[in-house]
Amino acid sequence: MKYYLLPLGCQMNQSDAERTRTVLQQMGFIPTENENEATILGIVACSVRQKGIDKVYGRIEKWNSMKNRQNCITFVSGCILPADRVRFLKLFDLVFPMNELPKLPDMIRQYGIVTPASLKMGEEIEMQPVVKPVAPLFNKHDVVNPSANMGQFWAITPTLTSEFEAFIPIQNGCDNFCTYCAVPYTRGREVSRPSAEILGELKDLVNKGYKSITLLGQNVNSYGLDKKGEEINFAELLRRVGEYGKASGKEFWVYYTAPHPRDMKDDIMEVMAQYDCLAKQIHIPIQSGDDNMLKRMNRHHDLATYRHIIQTIRRVLPTATIFTDIIVGFTKESEEEFENTRKAMEEFKYNMAYIAQYSVRPGAVASQWEDDVPKEVKRERYHILTDELMKHSLVYNTGLIGSTVKMLVEGYDRKNGYLNGHTEGKIVIRFASDDKQLIGQIVNVKVTKAAPLSIEGELVR
User: Fold this and answer.
1) pTM of the full structure
2) Looking at residue 125, what is its pLDDT?
3) How would you class 124 by CB atoms within 10 Å of its CB: exposed for 0-12, middle for 13-18, buried for 19 or more?
4) Beta strands per DSSP E along 288-402
5) CA 420, CA 433: separation in Å to the nearest integer?
6) pLDDT for residue 118 is more than 50
7) Is residue 269 domain-resident?
8) 361 pLDDT above the threshold of 90
9) Mean pLDDT score of the chain, rounded to an integer?
10) How far apart are CA 207 and CA 203, in angstroms?
11) Euclidean distance between the first and the last CA atom of the chain, given in angstroms as a whole number
């Protein structure tokens, strides 16, 4: 019996999917990329943008039509807003928050599905009819706390999908309540994972040869603040990671995402400067370069605070690359407010910016406000900022020509006869080679060409 799992959205959802795979495989199901041969069909959903939810509705419509010709059950978990959860209850067989993942085997058994793990040796697998439970597992009157019992979820060993890159969740939920954001309503309040577990998982990955490890959280640098006096803070967590990396003698890079400017203190950058294994790359969302807009977004920081962070990075970590997130077309965004954001991009010269055109998220505070910036204006502003990004990225990448950089080889490039990957600063890079043995290794490459957002070079043997 087989399962098909579709993870959508951010790296946290990808990480959640790895633990979901473990639970299903421990039940005896095996993965498949062919939906038509699966008994279990699942989605790790993303409610952060409407596009992600549209994908969920499109897929479940297809799956429900498949039930006329095959015996299967469907489930959805992940980041789900309360309004979406009510709708999903009418479409999916199982709807549950991710912290309830350890209960998934019992949920599936309630539907009368015989799992391979439940059979005695030598018994034949006989398909049983799918029978709905007498009462739904959740209904619209339930009060769901997505951050409760996270310890049981984190205790599940993930089924990793890469042999050299991995994610480690260190925290779940968010306490910031940005007015445009759905995360506090889909994942709940902040809960920090025990540092001993985090460090144990990281040491295991390093010992297995993993080269790129990312610490995950919705507000990763507020780690430990919910357990003051019981747990270390984020800077200390990074220091302990760095000390282990130094003692291990192994070459690997540790990243983290995503920090919030309100909790980005100088000590974090100072710790990063001390240890080679702490990758010199920082993703620090600005969202807007206008103070009035930042207040409407409830971002808890202003441009001066953000500028201090960038200046500290440039001073303490001069080789670090800087990534950001920006929203264009948020409610009442004026031409002046948008221009201030463009000026901020010009000032900070990001290596990468993930630019989103604002879409209303039901349940977030801003969903009560008029979405009054026309779509064509959002698109125009998106393209203006994209051009700004390309300009500064090209200047930085051109400056790398002639230098030798380290890169993690990730796989075959679309250009025939090339391998690609990313530098320590997460700049996309490729070089001519078809040596499969290099995949998953950190190698030296001399940069010979540059383009916006990517570089090309020659392998240094």
Assistant:
1) 0.90
2) 35
3) exposed
4) 321-328, 352-357
5) 9
6) no
7) no
8) no
9) 91
10) 6
11) 47
Q: Do the Cβ atoms of 352 and 385 come closer than 8 Å?
A: no
**Which class for 29: exposed (0-12), middle (13-18), buried (19 or more C-beta within 10 A)?**
buried
As for how many domains the chain has, the answer is: 4
Residue 346 pLDDT: 98
What's the token pair of residue 373? 């910036």
Answer whether 46's CB lies under 8 Å from 13's CB: yes
205 with 243, same domain: the answer is yes
* Tens digits of residue pLDDT in 246-266: 999 999 999 999 999 999 999
Neighbours of 155 (CB within 10 A): 10
Q: Quickly count: other Cβ atoms within 10 Å of residue 115's Cβ.
A: 18
Structural domain containing residue 412:
404-460
Burial class (CB in 10 A: 0-12, 13-18, 19+), 278: buried
Q: Provide the residue type at 256 as one letter.
A: Y
**Nearest Cα residue to 213 out of 182, 263, 176, 250:** 250
How far from 66 is each of 32, 61, 74, 395, CA to CA, in Å? 16, 9, 11, 52
Residue 408 within any structural domain of the chain = yes
Portion of the chain with pLDDT greater than 70, in percent:
92
